Amino acid sequence: MIPDRMAYHQLVWEIVREIPPGKVSTYGRIAGLLAPIHGMSEQAYSARGARMVGGAMAACPSNVPWHRVINAQGKVSLRKSDGGVEQRTRLEDEGVEFDEKDRVDLKRYLWQGPPDKWLIEHGLKD
DNA sequence: TCCTTGACTCAGA
DNA sequence: CTCTGAGCCAAGG
């Protein structure tokens, strides 16, 4: 078992749980809230972080609103097999609108992130 | 151990 | 706006 990865995943889930209904965030933004862990270099993490968050989403428990996490282009991105229908439906139920290109307007729906207080309480910031 | 994948992103064309 | 290719590297076969 690899405790490091589990810890990272749990941290990601805690952040995702803070995203309010009707708002979305991106893999990259979430990765950016976390410090480079596993001894990865800042540069490596900036390029790999988003995918690591994606990996955390793939293994997230049911109490995490994974559907509020989309990619930097404002689109839902899922595994090859799934068309992302469920994710889109869930977001629309919360009032998030998609344009004719299946994209979300990040200027309107992007979650600005947890307040500093929250980050400090969770040891993600000094 | 080598090879393929991957819920990503950014810069170019 | 859409499509490519490169960058990065952990996991699983």
Describe this structure as you would to a colleague:
With 126 residues, the chain is mainly α. It has helices at residues 3-17, 27-33, 42-58, 85-93, 106-109, 116-121; strands at 25-26, 69-70. Helix 1 crosses helix 3 (42-58) and helix 2 crosses helix 3. The termini are far apart. The structure holds a DNA duplex (13 and 13 nucleotides).
Low-confidence stretches: none
The proportion of residues in beta strands is under 5%
**Tally of strands:** 2
Name the shape in a single word. globular
Short description:
The chain has 126 residues and is mainly alpha-helical. 46% of the residues lie in helices and 3% in strands. A two-stranded parallel ribbon has the order 1-2.
Give the key terms.
DNA-binding; mainly alpha; 6 helices; 2 strands; single chain; two-stranded parallel ribbon; 126 residues
Write the layout of secondary structure elements.
Layout: H1 3-17, E1 25-26, H2 27-33, H3 42-58, E2 69-70, H4 85-93, H5 106-109, H6 116-121
Parallel strand pairs: 1-2
Helix pairs in contact: 1-3, 2-3
The structure holds a DNA duplex (13 and 13 nucleotides).
